[in-house]
Amino acid sequence: MSTDGPHHLFSRQPGRLPDTTEGLSVPKFVAFGFLASIIPVLLLFQKTLLHPSTIYIGENQDSVQFMWYLGWFWHAVLNGHNPLHTSLLNAPIGLNLMQNTSVSTEALLFGPVFYLFNPVLAYNLAFAAGVILTGLAAMLLLRQLRVSRWLAVGGGVLIQLAPYSTAQSADGHINLIFSSVFVLASLVVIVRVLLHSILHPRILGTVFGVLLGMLFYTSAEVFATYAFIAVLSLVIWTRLSPKRVRQVIRLVPLPFLLWGLSITLLVLSPGLYTFFDGTQIPSLAKAVMPVGVFVTDLLNPVLPTSVFLFHIHLTSVLTDRMSGDLSEKGAYFGIPTILILYWAIRKLWPSQLYRGLTILFVAVFVLSLGPKLHILGLYTPIPLPWILIQHIPLMREALPSRLMFYDDVIAVILVIGAIHRVLQTTSAEKRKKNARMSMLALLTLFLLWLPRVDFASQAMPALQPALMPKGEIYKRIRNQPTTLITSSYFSGAYFMGLAAQLKFTVPFTNVYGFPYTSEFLSTVKPQVQRTNSIYTSVYAHLNERQAVTAIKSFVSKRHPRYILDAKPYSPVLPKQLSQALNSLYGEPYTVNGLRLWPIRK
Length: 601
Fold this sequence. Notes:
Blueprint: H1 26-44, E1 55-57, H2 62-78, E2 85-86, E3 95-96, H3 104-116, H4 119-144, H5 149-160, H6 163-170, H7 174-195, H8 201-218, H9 220-240, H10 242-251, H11 254-276, H12 313-320, H13 335-348, H14 352-368, E4 372-375, E5 378-383, H15 404-422, H16 428-448, E6 457-459, H17 472-477, E7 482-484, H18 489-492, H19 495-501, H20 518-523, H21 525-531, H22 544-558, E8 562-565, H23 575-585, E9 589-591, E10 594-598
């Protein structure tokens, strides 16, 4: 078994990394790395930069949900409430925020911006910070793997622009963008401990535990998949060389393990208790997310979606046929990238570190395919390994397609590692030739993964005067349980933006911004099955009699004081739905297009 080169997994080095780069000192590396990490932000925020307080990243309703969460943490703390649970959504039952991507870590850091300025600016700053910190953490990770500083910077930018991250950015998934930061930063610590001697194991253990805690409070889903991938990695390398793995584990300082484990458990304990506390888990109004929808399609790696600059109409049509929404189709590599990756694997195969990474890459991709194989949207009966782990606690909340983050990182590490190796040749002429080829390979990846010029963004609707503190509608609904009604799933979650603008002064009976609940679904199940869409509210398919039944069922369980039809956050209600509300509660109180129905007891 070969142990050649500086990349052998078990060759521990003294604390300082060897300087294999000419002309780029540590201060220049830091400065250049930071400037380079801003490039992806400029690409993603093209429409947002000039109006950061009104225009935000994301083309669907998820972004405004995170705005609400960014403000809730400090509102709860300053008012003596539990920041991991809220009664202002799903009122009067409340909502377990640990099960609803509540980004408590980011809320802790950026919540003050929410109050000092506005929700949109807080969200945009948090999103931009997540992208930049992802790049910086990736650069540090590559340096810990003894890659030259120039290549570490280039690899960091590629990880920022990785297809998974670009796809998730299109839907404004700040939780998944920031999760990347903590995963990569914790990997820096792990590699530091495994490959280099460390002087302060207790400090490093504490940092590691805090990073894992911050990851958990950003996304319990990513925390679970990260733990699973870590175990899978250990199994793979143990199979490759069990004796040497045991040797490395023995070299890990005991204080690092004790402090890391203790801090992790201490930080996680409130969140774990809340997550598994059945008394706080609402039994109503779960979103309809069919199993096996958000998975990697077998052809997605070679077909770019519309989020990328270089795509054609045909690839958009083909990827639209794949299951799931745009943000979950982030498995694209491109045929040139796959060929470059194949070259890198061949170059690095003698290294035990990279051989294990290659096996892990393949295993993760297979897992991302989900419980059954999908080919261009066709759901086949072919079972896959995910079916064996999909019911593990925490893992059952994970979407298989999101495992592609790990494959993107592994792919970049493999390519950068191979380029670093070929540039170490002693022949000046050959080194110059390899440098040109390496630059071409990096440029190819960069161009293939560029986001489209008009990247997804939209403007927050201005708050209507009637909903401002002195407005007539606001005076009525303040501190009163209110139902925001809509016939569209996509407008339903935009209500979270309205809720954020109202600064937690109105308890809403809506759940997670969705316009439907389990009571409605049970009432009109045949209609839901006929529409065959998880994105259409059942309200859009009810006649007046059915609408009356559904509304009465909801009101009897949630006891709202008002029902609000809020424009411009919602499209025009279907005529039969408006008639049902009028027949139950009379003509609404109307101000500038806003309609409010008081619920008579």
